[in-house]
Amino acid sequence: MSTAATxxxxxxxxxxxxxxxxxxxxxxxxxxxxxxxxxxxxxRVTELMKGMxxxxxxEKKTRGAAINQAKQAIEAALxxxxxxxxxxxxxxxxxxxxxxxxxxxxxxxxxxxHPISLAWQRIEQIFGGMGFDVGxxxxxxxxxxxxxALNNPPNxxxxxxxxxxxxxxxxxxxxxxxxxxxxxPMQIRYAVAHAKRHAAALARGEASEIRVIVPGRTYRVxxxxxxxPMFHQVEGLWLGENVSFKDLKVTYLNxxxxxxxxxxxxxxxxxxxxxxxEPSAEIDIQFSSGPLAGKWLExxxxxxxxxxxxxxMGLDPERFVxxxxxxxxxxxxxxxxxxxxxxxxxDGDIRFLSQFR
Length: 357
What we know:
This protein folds into 2 domains: 3-96; 116-356, 2-Layer Sandwich (BirA Bifunctional Protein, domain 2), CATH 3.30.930.10. 43% of the residues lie in helices and 20% in strands. It has helices at 3-24, 28-39, 44-50, 57-96, 115-129, 143-146, 185-193, 195-203, 245-260, 307-312, 329-337, 350-353; strands at residues 133-134, 140-142, 166-170, 176-179, 210-219, 230-240, 265-274, 277-287, 297-305, 321-328. Strands 1-5-6-10-9-8-7 form a 7-stranded mixed beta sheet, with helices on both faces. The protein has a 3-stranded antiparallel beta sheet with strand order 2-4-3. A hairpin with a 5-residue loop joins β3 (166-170) and β4 (176-179). The protein is elongated, with a radius of gyration of 41 Å.
């Protein structure tokens, strides 16, 4: 047998060996290791290429063509095995992730308003029916509106009752900004914004009143099962020439009966202190039936608007009297829906929120 025939047989044996080795590779990693044995830097085909240096020019042409042909056959077998392994992996994934197309489709869940939003809307509707406007103001408030204009001057001890978060900037008058601790600053803002309307009405000899509620977010340094650093409050203000504490009692009692949808409750007014009202009172509520029957629960602070606050509104405290109250919307929602932990409102748990759809 000639040398050329022997060399051809050797190449055929290498191609056959490579095909068999590739076929035994069960993973891509094993296949790459098998490739290195034949086509790597020290592979069998590479070594054959290196041994051509001692051949004549004619032998190099013949030998080189034969080696290249064998290399192409090996690469074809390698590509075929790679594709086979990829197809097998895809089939395995399809089997593992198979879908039962006979199952009914999954529909989008139905959303709904947050319980705080539901309570907020209900409060606006009830007081709107009583003739109250709905006001809105900034959550980042300056120190004058948030404290000083409400008869709570700088360095007054009462400010410690409402620790809050300050912003590192001042207004044009040098008053620092803070996150508002209550919606009460809107008492001043609303009265000033409507001062011309009241003045015109008084000039015509007509009665003029301020009747407004202000729901919104407020902030204090507080956090436990019944308090949150951010909470919702509704401020109420009614000023006029003949508005008394009796009107406060009747108004708030009617609101509670409408909000809780029951006449089976009573209110209690306890003496308290707020710098912007005098006299001041905490409002407690007691239900005669249900899980909270017989318990007094605080729901609001209130009182007759302090004369200095009326002056800061640009009004005459000898002529304008009235009341203000501040109620926690979160607290009212907890009582209405039977929630015992305020933090549930802010956890975003769909299982909890879905009950209010």
